[in-house]
Design a protein that fits this description.
Radius of gyration: 18 Å
Strand content: 25-35%
Structural class: alpha/beta
Distance between the termini: 39 Å
Largest sheet: 3 strands, parallel
Strand order of the largest sheet: 3-1-6
Helix content: 25-40%
């Protein structure tokens, strides 16, 4: 027997009028990001497929997209100290200026989203979403 969740997802049909949708995969703030090469915005990609099938113009702004075989850029934001242990708190992903450049390019194309969705893979990565 199928779960209710599966039925809801299988039967979901978004509004079919033409909308411009911006999907955002934000940078990550954490002490480490060892699985960076395997972290993909799967939920956003699935949502993109569904929206495109229903006539929406969808774009993805991915702060964690890798260029070729490079590593994610990281910038130390602060040092977190708990008891006697200090850890670097890093921001992983494209620079804010790179992301701003993509938004400016959208504006030059006269492309403005009707809706924006931002992924938050896990609650402790809230800073990137903010």
């Amino acid at each position: 027997m199928e779960s209710n969740k599966s039925l809801i997802i299988d039967n979901y049909v978004p509004e079919t009028h033409h909308r411009r949708i911006l999907l955002c995969n934000p940078p990550i703030y954490d002490t480490r990001f060892p699985w960076a090469r395997f972290q993909q915005p799967v939920a956003l990609l699935q949502l993109s497929t569904l929206l495109r099938q229903n006539g929406c113009d969808v774009r993805l702004l991915d702060a964690l997209a890798l260029d070729g075989n490079t590593l994610h850029r990281r910038r130390r934001m602060r040092v977190v100290t708990r008891e006697s242990v200090s850890l670097n708190w890093w921001r992983f992903g494209r620079l804010p200026t790179d992301l701003r450049g993509h938004l400016i390019a959208f504006e030059r194309e006269k492309w403005q989203p009707d809706e924006v969705y931002i992924a938050g893979f896990t609650t402790f990565w809230w800073e990137g979403v903010a």
